[in-house]
Design goal:
The protein is α/β, with parallel strands linked by helices. A five-stranded parallel beta sheet has the order 2-1-3-4-5, with helices on both faces. Strands 7-8-11-6-12 form a five-stranded parallel beta sheet. The two termini are 39 Å apart.
Length: 475
């Protein structure tokens, strides 16, 4: 959770105290800091994590404009609100051009102050979270090759690393759209074959009479339209990897031929009497229960065991919700590139709503959903109003008040509470409820953890009971 301070800088000490007093009433859980000069404000800025700063424009020594520039250099995301008693449009425009987020004129009305600072706090939260997600994306791509923060996918990555070190045939299973081909390509990309080609063939998309030719190739005159010799995918992928998608849908005849290839690694083109040898790794994908198909008699048991030397089960998106924020942010960037648009942001309330959905179509469905959001965003940040527009009759719509307006605060609070509860639950299971150890792993202060636990009403006794239960079983 991003914890930051609000800094108020003004050389009029009475005005400074009044602003601080009002902000403390409005934002009781936030740290409100004060400084009576630009020099003092800069010192505070360097020591504290300042997310929002209100600064007088004209001050002796370091002016508000100079403090604005220094603050942006320290924290490029900071929202600076300039306050001036000399409220000319020209002065305000100059401050905005130099990076100020907004401006207020003296005397400052209380409601205007509250509204402006509240928007600045929300904007900084949004900017910070989007930058964090982008940093996570870059880190995950560099370290792992795919995007995931969830424990289940981290375990899967370890399995993939072990599988990639071998040349054995792999069976990748999982629901439609869960990312099976992505995982298969990750296996190839981290294997010794990564410098060679990787081909993917969607088996049921090709008529049975042509599938054999696509796999094994054919010679000239083998059938009508075969006007020249042609290699198949087994030869295309020689020394590399061949991904066979939806392997459960191939016919018994093709199953028999594929089994023979897996046994002797020989390729005989259609219409030829001469065999060729192919060194190709097979990764088969399916969203079906092959064991059930074996019992039904529609899939060969011997082929199943040839394919299932090593296996990977890709979990559905609903089993790894922690990955959704990172995926959404990456899909937004990807969609913006595809549409030649500037990158856009997504507010926490909208992200929380997306994270809570079940996504039966998994990653593929999520990608298409994000593409629709980007298309209809008109370049603006993605928020709940846009989601209501997209959802229509397609699915659940975020709750609104009696006037049809979504409550940003409530949706954001719900999203953050959901994340905090799930995150701490996972850590507490590891630390068995030990606050000090949880603080070390999470990077949160002990006091912050205790506040979150109290606010969410988390039952710490169950983690200690789990610990006692494990110890009893061991003893």
């Amino acid at each position: 959770m991003n914890e930051f301070s609000i800094l108020v800088v003004d050389d009029n000490k009475d005005f400074l105290k009044g602003i601080i007093r009002n902000l403390q009433k409005k934002f009781p859980t936030m740290e409100i800091l004060g400084a009576s000069s630009g020099e003092e404000g800069l010192k505070v800025f360097r020591k504290k994590n300042v997310g929002v700063m209100l600064s007088d424009l004209r001050m002796p020594g370091i002016s508000g404009q100079e403090l604005l520039q220094a603050g942006i250099e320290i924290n490029p995301l900071v929202c600076v609100i300039m306050i001036t008693g000399h409220g000319t449009v020209e002065t305000a425009v100059k401050a905005l051009k130099r990076g100020a987020w907004d401006f207020l004129t003296k005397p400052v009305e209380r409601e205007t102050l509250y509204h402006t600072v509240e928007r600045a706090v929300e904007h900084y939260d949004l900017s910070y979270e989007n930058r964090r997600l982008q940093e996570v994306i870059e880190s995950l791509k560099h370290e792992k090759g795919f995007l995931s923060e969830s424990q289940v996918m981290q375990q899967l990555q370890k399995k993939i690393t072990a599988i990639a070190a071998t040349d054995y045939t792999v069976l990748v299973t999982g629901e439609s759209g869960s990312g099976k081909e992505y995982i298969a390509r990750n296996i190839h990309g981290t294997s010794r074959r990564k410098q060679a080609s990787c081909h993917a063939l969607n088996c049921p998309a090709i008529p049975e009479l042509l599938l054999e030719s696509e796999l094994f190739g054919h010679v000239k005159g083998a059938f009508t339209g075969a006007d020249r010799d042609r290699d198949g995918f087994f030869m295309y992928a020689d020394k590399g990897t061949l991904i066979l998608d939806e392997i459960g849908d191939i016919s018994p005849a093709i199953q028999a031929k594929l089994l023979k290839f897996l046994q002797d690694r020989e390729v005989k083109p259609v219409g030829s009497s001469i065999s060729k040898t192919a060194d190709v790794r097979i990764i088969a994908l399916t969203n079906q229960n092959l064991e059930q198909k074996i019992r039904e008699g529609s899939f060969r048991e011997d082929l199943y065991y040839r394919l299932n030397v090593l296996s990977v089960r890709v979990p559905p998106l609903r089993k790894r919700r922690e990955d959704i924020p990172v995926l959404v942010r990456d899909f937004i960037l990807q969609s913006c590139r595809e549409l030649n648009m500037e990158p856009m942001e997504i507010d926490p309330a909208a992200l929380g709503f997306i994270t809570r959905q079940s996504w039966p179509g998994n990653v593929r469905q999520l990608l298409n959903y994000v593409r629709r959001l980007v298309v209809f965003s008109n370049g603006n940040p993605i928020d709940l109003s846009l989601i209501r527009l997209i959802e229509g009759e397609e699915g659940p719509v975020p709750e609104t008040d009696s006037k049809g307006r979504a409550s940003y605060k409530e949706a954001k609070k719900e999203a953050l509470d959901h994340f905090s509860r799930n995150y701490l639950d996972q850590i507490f299971k590891i630390t068995r409820g030990n606050i000090s150890e949880t603080s070390r792993i999470s990077g949160l202060e002990r006091a912050s953890i205790q506040k979150i636990v109290k606010r969410l009403g988390m039952d710490m006794s169950r983690y200690r009971e789990q610990s006692l239960g494990r110890n009893t079983q061991v003893l």
